[in-house]
Amino acid sequence: PNLVARIVSSIKQYTRHDQSQGITHQGQVLFLDLLRSSSGQQTPLVLVVDGVDECSRTSEEVVQSILRLLCQAAVDIPYIRILIATRPEPYIMSALPAQTEDGAILRNLWTDAVEEIDGDIELFIQTEFDQRARRGNFILLEDRPDAVTRLTHLSAGLFIYAHTATRALLNNNYEATDIFDQLVSCEVHASAAEVYGRLGTLYTTILQVAFREFRERADRMEYYRQILVWLAVGRWTFSPTDLAIVGIPPRISQDFMNRLRSVLVIDGEITPAIEIRACHASFPQFLSDSARCTDPAFLVDPPSGHAMIASSLLDLLARDNVDSLRDADGNMPRMWEYAIRCWDVHLCDARYTPKLGRALRGFVETHLENWLQKEAPWDSHYGAALLVELCREVRTWCKKNGPDDGLAAALNTIIDRRVKEIVAEAAQSPDKFADRHRKRIKVWAKRGYTPYREPDEEDEERLEDEEE
């Protein structure tokens, strides 16, 4: 109870101040400092972190930072014990200590608990198949009575494979035998890494079966491809209603969900409000991995995907009739909130395309200054100084990737104008700005703002020396 109270207190105190610090600073304040303050704790505290591999691959550096923070806590704080469960992804394992370091214990369940894992997988498959068989006409078990045993062997300890394959077979009753035969055609003894690669074959089969009848319809496949892009590189999950805002008809999105039930989280009826969410992070990871997703109809190239999303978001933000987007209660759609918070993130990860260049110019010439000035409904609730820095990153991306068409210069002009406004606001009402931003604004006031380089700590220290 005392620890819970301290956690609540720390979070409340933290949220009163600027929240734009990096993950390392947040972890230090909200995790390490909090636990160190409980040095009198007598009872060991066990932290269990499960499914690390299910975090978005777009956040690999964040995942690594958090893992290093956890491991450091286990070393520095005597009463802490940490259990981390994950697939052995290289970017995850590189952030964990070796077994010989600092009392770390590494257990490979694929080799240490083979029989237990296989038993759990077999029980899961048998239970699911039995439930379906009780309803009658389960063609797979009629054609392949040994399907449970073969599928258990094929899963080779990878539960997500067993789960996905089972759902695919149950959701495609009349094609289940053909799908099953495709899967067992590669039934050989395999290492854990090879089994994980086999998961890619399963995903490919599911996608090809789901959209086979539309492969020759370019217009329909383009909608499906767009949804795959949002699923693979979007930072949030989206519903058919959300995607309708960026031009994807809800009926198409709902049909997409119905065809991919085996890899999506869907319970019951598919409605426009249900979010399109992958059962496991390995599916969107597969979609964006050209070494595993070898069918070009389904491969999502991340830089191109980010360009598509950024273009859609910028076109949305550049609209003049934004009030037409409001619902009956006057609220803006969820996609609008995503656009004002994430357009710059997608753009800076994108490959330049003429369409993206036109979309960025459209926003720059219409409502970028509304966004920078935090005017409703373009207010992202980020700090004013932080928005300037985000805009600077956009200008840098534009200068590096786009043509010399005057767009970078236009961004410079807008940034300089906004900086002058912020400097004037800070002089009148300094308490409106967080401490770390006030220091930066002082540098801007003293030396001016140069978009080509962000004021750094040395600038701030020199300014403090001059003031003294």
From TrEMBL:
It comes from the Eukaryota. The keyword Repeat applies. Residues 3-87 form the Nephrocystin 3-like N-terminal domain. InterPro entries: NPHP3-like_N. Keywords: Repeat. This is Nephrocystin 3-like N-terminal domain-containing protein. Pfam families: NPHP3_N.
